[in-house]
Amino acid sequence: MKKIGLVGGISWASTLDYYRYLNEGINRQLGGLNFAECLIYSVNFNEFQQFNADYNWDATFELLANAAQNLKKAGAEAIVLCANTAHIVADRVAENVGLPLIHITTATAKAVNKRGLKKIGLIGTSYTMELDFYKDKLIENGLTPIVPESQDDRDYIEDILRNELGRGIINPETKKKYLKIIEELINRGAEGIILGCTEIPLLIQQQDVSVPVFDTTKIHVEAAVNFALS
Questions:
Q1: What residue ranges in 37-97 does DSSP mark as E strands?
Q2: Alpha carbon of 199 to those of 6, 48, 70, 166: distances in Å?
Q3: Residue 126: beta bridge partners?
Q4: Does the predicted TM-score (pTM) go above 0.90?
Q5: Helix (H, G, I), strand (E, B) or coil at 138
Q6: How far apart are CA 196 and CA 200, in angstroms?
Q7: pLDDT of 59-99, one tens digit each?
Q8: Smallest Cα–Cα separation from 205: which of 217, 190, 188?
Q9: Is the peptide bond before 230 cis (omega within 30 degrees of 0)?
């Protein structure tokens, strides 16, 4: 089994799910008392958020590359960045650390294509929805991503991710608003919805939505499990 290095803390709430799903995934494959060989480097979420807010991608890169290098020194054989937004600098981190990096957007695009969908709704941080790094990767894989049209809606999603979900706070009123935004994407032709932030599955599940939902946390972890056992 290969050792997986998890760059977590972005946020700690979703890193818990990464650790749990990784161990459950290995155990489903191998049974018995077999669980994942993994390492976690948890960064300071406040630093990550501040660098992103300043659009200081060099600082974001240095923060995550330092974490990845420490995981490599500790014996990790692949890197998992435990956040969609972190993939703004994923290619730079992979080049810097010299290890395979299991890319969340590539894994998600494969999962969407497997379902035969083309037009896909995307919600996540403002960076994921508004910058090109995520949407371009989906387009490269034959998909047509759409994001909420309203700036107010995109700002609301971002605010909740930072001030509620990133702190592990679950609010029923927030869920209603998120579902309203998702319904608007479906009305615009979205055949499925990518939960493009690893905190959103804390709030939204498949049973809440009328079209296929793609939980990027679970998809990313499944790709990590497959790598660990390859």
A1: 38-42, 78-81
A2: 16, 15, 25, 7
A3: none
A4: yes
A5: helix
A6: 8
A7: 999 999 999 999 999 999 999 999 999 999 999 999 999 99
A8: 217
A9: no
